[in-house]
Write a structure and sequence with these properties.
2 copies of one chain form a homodimer.
Chain A (H helix, E strand, L loop, with lengths): L3 E6 H7 L4 H16 L8 E5 L4 E7 L7 E10 L13 E6 L5 E6 L3 H18 L6 E5 L3 H13 L4 E5 L3 H15 L2 E4 L3 H7 L2 E4 L17 E5 L12 H5 L3 E4 L2 H7 L1 H7 L7 E2 H6 L11 E5 L4 H12 L7 E4 L1
Parallel strand pairs in A: 1-6, 7-8, 7-10, 8-9, 10-11, 11-14, 12-13, 12-14
Antiparallel strand pairs in A: 1-15, 2-3, 3-4, 4-5, 5-6
Chain lengths: 326, 326
């Protein structure tokens, strides 16, 4: 029996969906469902292709109550910039959660992944950052540096932003972009320590393999969201700094033990049991309980975010896209 | 940088690709590559959804020398027939093996999976069945029963076919269809034992959970290809029958230990080390070496077949499909 499949290009998706509070709420609801225990989220299918300097990840999650679920394919081919192409691309497929039929193919080249990743940062900030954030700190100068700043501003409307990256010119451009998108006064710092000293909320968005944040940089009333590390070998927060937190929260504890900051913390002897972000969202684990706490949220990116954004997007499309009868 | 993505519907794919010797050769080349050791094939991503009587598998493989690789999404939702829909559907995405960019989306609803599964049966028959097959035996009455018969006929042009299924009416219709597609004289048997007694090549295509083939049914000069079991809990060949083979071959030994007939054989104490089908194809393991041998090929379905057929299909399309600039 033929049914319609909606195909959306990246530009159609950019026209239909942006980073806003309704999207953040949808991602937050996904984390809440994940904590409820009825979500089915298998381990990531991950294929390393060293022979072509590439990798492919496939993520999915079934979330009860949503009409569909996403299968998200994320290739990263790191010689692409030499060819004038972005390293990351890929697509999401939305399937019916009742029949398994394909409902939509989002040829997003990673745009929806960027949005749902930034939205998770906002969810973390909403529950874990101090109520008032005067200054946002950002480590990193890429797409996520910009998007995380926009996401944080939606839930903690900071007046100042301080940013560090290895490349000063890139950091300056990123600071300009964040100033434009948020209206904050932005400046570039000389090093990560300067960023942390000035900030109440710090988001790390780098591919660092040697930790940037060490214990002596921590101070009361600080929240850090570390979203750069998503595979073994990356680390933005030293194990000792992780262990020094008053509270550590993971998007998914098992994933963070394999791919996130928790991995390095475990290797350094940290034996604590972090709560999940969904537990914090649903109130089954505490969020920030005092102004002086030092808190961390370790984000590796979950299939539940992909299903949440794909389900959200389908309601934003109007008549955009190409419909194929199949 | 925008590039073109080709979208193909099931009917466009059915018009462009059929079960023939070039396709079988392409699948055989995939198995050969798999044995060569340079293929990257991660474990299947498998998501069971008991709450909706469904499951989703995702398979992939990178095959050096091919321009692309497939990510194949196979949902099975077993309440669909109550809704007038097929249980199986899904799609394949073909990505560039150089850049990771999406090249094509095949909305095949499982058609290409059906073809590549049947083609693997032909590869097994080519290397393991006796040179002359007078009579083909089939257990099962579904799509694969029909396709496996067509595939076998391309490499072992049998004159007779004997078929068994639990439902006599379905078995009769299947026998008629096989007679039409192959020209063979087809009849329905009373039980699996009758099928095995009459055949030199038997293909099992059932979802049996209690083995249909027991040791006393085996006879010299018999080859069995068991392709029905693709998850823990299914079994078509009793462990003792597997252990009694002169030679057992697996499409992928690790997968067959988890999902195939080898699983039951291991549970029954079988300690042998089957060759892979790719080793047989490349000659690094022997195929059939005498007329009297009793041989088995255990097929669970591999990502390398998906990449092989997706790469083959892209060369068959002419100008079929919808091109989307992304």
């Amino acid at each position: 029996m033929a049914h319609d499949i909606r195909i959306l290009t990246e530009s159609e998706l950019r026209g239909a969906v942006t980073l806003d509070l309704p999207l953040i709420d949808a991602i937050e609801a996904g984390f809440a469902a994940l904590a409820g225990g009825a979500v089915v989220m298998p381990p990531v299918l991950s294929m390393a292709l060293p022979q072509v300097h590439g990798e492919v990840d496939v993520k999915t999650a079934y979330v009860p109550g949503l009409e569909g679920f996403a299968i998200k394919v994320s290739p990263g081919f790191f010689d692409n910039p030499k060819r004038g192409l972005p390293s990351l691309n890929g697509l999401m497929v939305l399937l019916s959660a009742t029949t398994g039929q394909v409902r939509a193919v989002f040829l997003d080249n990673g745009y929806l992944t960027d949005l749902r990743t930034a939205a998770a940062g906002a969810v973390a900030a909403r529950h874990l950052a101090p109520p008032v954030v005067e200054t946002l700190g950002i480590l990193g100068t890429g797409v996520q540096a910009r998007l995380q700043a926009r996401a944080a501003h939606l839930v903690r409307p900071f007046a100042n932003c301080i940013l560090w990256g290895r490349d000063f010119a890139k950091a300056s451009r990123c600071a300009e972009d964040i100033a434009k998108s948020t209206g904050a006064i932005c400046r570039v710092a000389a090093n990560p320590a300067e960023v942390l000293a000035a900030s109440q909320l710090v988001v790390t968005t780098t591919p660092a393999t040697v930790p940037l944040i060490t214990p002596e940089m921590l101070h009361p009333g600080l929240h850090i969201t570390a979203m750069g590390s998503d595979q073994a070998g990356k680390a933005e927060v030293a194990g000792a700094a992780f262990a020094a937190m008053d509270m550590a929260v993971c998007d998914d504890v098992a994933q963070c033990e394999a791919f996130g900051e928790l991995r390095g913390a475990r290797a350094a002897g940290y034996a604590g049991q972090p709560a999940s972000l969904g537990q914090v969202v649903t109130g089954t684990a505490p969020g920030r309980i005092s102004d002086g706490q030092v808190t961390l949220c370790d984000l590796t990116g979950t299939g539940v975010q992909d299903t949440a954004i794909a389900s959200f997007v389908i309601g934003c499309l109007g008549d955009a896209g190409t419909v194929i009868r199949n």
